[in-house]
Design brief:
heterodimer; A: mainly beta; 6-stranded mixed beta sheet; 4-stranded antiparallel beta sheet; B: mainly beta; 7-stranded mixed beta sheet; globular
Chain lengths: 117, 114
């Protein structure tokens, strides 16, 4: 079963508009972390934002914010004021547990975002 | 500057040949990972290592081998047993033991089998 689901293979947004990229996850752990990465066409993976399962407030990093709804097991990425440079693949990832297990990250299939001028 | 280096950036291999992809990090991270990415797809875990001299198979380990003789280095060998090795390979590292530490990625190696 898929642990990370990203239901939008591709998204378009107008420059300067906000866009939400969806991510739902599946875990039975109480302790886990959720991450978003950006992958431009060059292939590098750029860390954007992190949300811990015990964090009560939604994470924010500049123009990025994470809409965390724990009961629904969703961790959507919101990009405000889109820029042309935001065009890239975006991956949602989860790291379960702590300590001697759960060292693996699980990645979703990604969403390709295209920002239109 | 701390980071992860992968070499080479592009690699061409003839069918039937083994090839080794290099991954080095100076972040003092215990855990290191290898992922494979096919065009338009997500990342699939090949191998990971939590400490020196120890490594575990990921989801798609068949046809690959690794070693972890030094904390800083985690080379990946693509063997002739890997039937479809043409892909983009990403190496990553992270702090071991806590769920809030992100993975840091290298720039990747694009392998093409001729």
């Amino acid at each position: 079963a898929q642990k990370i689901t990203q239901t939008q293979p591709g998204m378009f947004v107008q420059e300067k508009e906000a866009v939400t990229l969806d991510c739902t996850y599946d875990t039975s752990d109480q302790s886990y972390g959720l991450f978003w990465y950006k992958q431009p066409s060059s292939g590098e993976m750029i860390f954007l934002i992190y949300q811990g399962s015990y964090d009560e407030q939604n994470a924010t990093e500049g123009r990025y914010s994470l809409n965390f709804q724990k009961a629904r097991k969703s961790a959507n990425l919101v990009i405000s004021a889109s820029q042309l440079g935001d065009s890239a693949m975006y991956f949602c990832a989860m790291r379960e547990g702590r300590g001697n297990y759960g060292q693996n990250f699980v990645f979703g299939p990604g969403t390709r975002l295209s920002v239109l001028p | 500057d701390g980071g992860i280096t992968q070499s080479p950036k592009y690699l061409f291999r003839k069918e039937g040949q083994n090839v080794t992809l290099s991954c080095e990090q100076n972040l003092n991270h215990d855990a290191m990972y290898w992922y494979r990415q096919d065009p338009g797809q997500g990342l699939r875990l090949i191998y990971y290592s939590q400490i020196v001299n120890d490594f575990q198979k990921g989801d798609i380990a068949e046809g690959y081998s690794v070693s972890r003789e030094k904390k800083e280095s985690f080379p990946l060998t693509v063997t002739s047993a890997q039937k479809n090795p043409t892909a983009f390979y990403l190496c990553a590292s992270s702090i071991y033991g806590v769920s809030y530490n992100e993975q840091f990625f290298g720039p990747g190696t694009r392998l093409t089998v001729l």
